[in-house]
């Protein structure tokens, strides 16, 4: 099977006798091949782990085209697929297939599309009892053009009407949804309702993960409640107005004192994560420039493997020029190298990554294992058309090495 191999940190002193500070000693986690891979070796999912999500749900109309059309073009699709979508609904479907008990708070209309979305979620084991069904209006839907040439997608979204309001969810329903929840997840689509839920979850000391896909209304109100943040490339710089990604991640952790870690995903280029040190890990150490540290990690990552890997620094004082200093660890994760002939559609890959992160948090995975696992799940999802078609189940042989 594939299994994680720990590469010991570098020694305190180099061969020339020069002292190497903690920030210059690193840990690598990679996977090596073995012949004993077995689904039977996969441990059971976390006992009674429940993830509650609040956010987007939609019907996706996916059409593949040979190339994206120019203005006034008339082209034909090469394939068509209609299936459920929406950030939160996709992420919770992923989490459910991985073995978590998933609950979703959202809103649909009492139309054929809304009924179809509920049926599809229920078939995947997602609890839809907290989804509000409007008697009138329309359910949200998205047109998605998938470019076969560039392997990119363009989304045109139509929101549901009437929109969800906090008053749509009764106090008793909210408390029932939060009952025994292990973690709460928001995609910031329904920000007013999300804020009400976040305040109650925080009061109950339930961890919160926020997907900051882009700057949205209500995001700044919701972020202070976040324990974990996952965001796409360029969001940290946009939100903090810090020019570099590493510096922006430090800025986010300094501005949001409750935040334990923040991950920025970069598609085929992998991901970057900064984790705040626990109080027990805080100690006096030499400051390390986070930009230089990242460059060192890039040189240490294994670029020869096709499967996801992770390299990390030791706990140290991370300094971002013009921003500040914090104690923590820097992680660099690689993405799966998908053969061009197997890459079909990247729609929902970020949602798959988040679904896997939710699972990893509930399962108590260390970051060194969580990042490659999440990258592998995202890679699986890119091999089929649509956000959910390729989402793997936890017994998928491709996931076994990351779960044992």
Automatic annotation (TrEMBL):
Ranges for domain Carbohydrate kinase PfkB: 57-281, 336-393
Gene Ontology terms for molecular function: kinase activity
SUPFAM superfamilies per record: Ribokinase-like (SSF53613)
UniProt keyword annotations, A-Z: Kinase, Transferase
A Pfam family the protein falls into: PfkB
UniProt entry tagged with the keyword Kinase: yes
Assigned GO CC terms: chloroplast; cytosol
PANTHER family: KETOHEXOKINASE, PHOSPHOTRANSFERASE SYSTEM TRANSPORT PROTEIN
Family that this chain belongs to: Belongs to the carbohydrate kinase PfkB family.
The protein's name in its UniProt record: PfkB-like carbohydrate kinase family protein
Organism in which the protein naturally occurs: Arabidopsis thaliana
Lineage: Eukaryota, Viridiplantae, Streptophyta, Embryophyta, Tracheophyta
């Amino acid at each position: 099977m594939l299994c994680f191999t720990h590469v010991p940190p570098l020694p305190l002193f180099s061969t020339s006798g020069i002292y190497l500070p903690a920030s210059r000693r690193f840990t690598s986690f990679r996977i090596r091949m073995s012949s004993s891979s077995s689904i039977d070796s996969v441990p059971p999912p976390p006992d009674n782990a429940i993830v509650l999500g609040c956010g987007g749900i939609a019907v996706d109309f996916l059409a593949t085209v040979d190339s994206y059309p120019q203005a006034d073009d008339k082209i034909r699709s090469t394939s068509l697929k209609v299936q459920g979508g929406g950030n939160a609904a996709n992420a919770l479907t992923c989490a459910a297939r991985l073995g978590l008990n998933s609950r979703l708070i959202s809103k649909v209309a009492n139309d054929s599309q809304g009924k179809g979305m509920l049926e599809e979620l229920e078939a995947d084991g997602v609890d839809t009892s907290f989804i509000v069904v409007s008697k009138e209006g329309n359910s949200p839907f998205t047109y998605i053009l998938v470019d076969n040439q560039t392997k990119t997608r363009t989304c045109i979204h139509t929101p549901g009407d009437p929109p969800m309001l906090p008053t749509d969810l009764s106090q008793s329903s909210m408390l029932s949804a939060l009952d025994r929840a292990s973690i709460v997840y928001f995609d910031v689509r329904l920000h007013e309702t999300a804020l009400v839920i976040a305040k109650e979850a925080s009061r109950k000391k339930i961890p919160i993960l926020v997907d900051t896909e882009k700057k949205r209304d209500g995001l700044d109100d919701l972020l202070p409640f976040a324990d974990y943040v996952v965001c796409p490339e360029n969001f940290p710089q946009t939100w903090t107005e810090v020019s570099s990604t590493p510096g922006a991640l430090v800025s986010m952790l300094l501005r949001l004192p409750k935040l334990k870690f923040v991950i920025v995903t970069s598609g085929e280029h992998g991901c970057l994560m900064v984790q705040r040190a626990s109080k027990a890990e805080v100690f006096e150490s030499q400051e390390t420039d986070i930009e230089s540290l990242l460059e060192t990690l890039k040189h240490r990552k294994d670029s020869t493997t096709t499967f996801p890997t992770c390299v990390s620094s030791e706990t140290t004082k991370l300094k971002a020029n013009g921003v500040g200093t914090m104690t923590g660890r820097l992680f660099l994760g690689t993405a799966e190298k998908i053969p061009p002939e197997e890459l079909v559609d990247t729609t929902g890959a970020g949602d798959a990554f988040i679904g896997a992160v939710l699972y990893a948090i509930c399962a108590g995975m260390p970051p060194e294992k969580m990042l490659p696992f999440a990258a592998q799940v995202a890679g699986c999802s890119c091999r089929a058309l649509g956000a959910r078609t390729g989402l793997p189940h936890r017994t998928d042989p491709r996931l076994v090495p990351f779960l044992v």
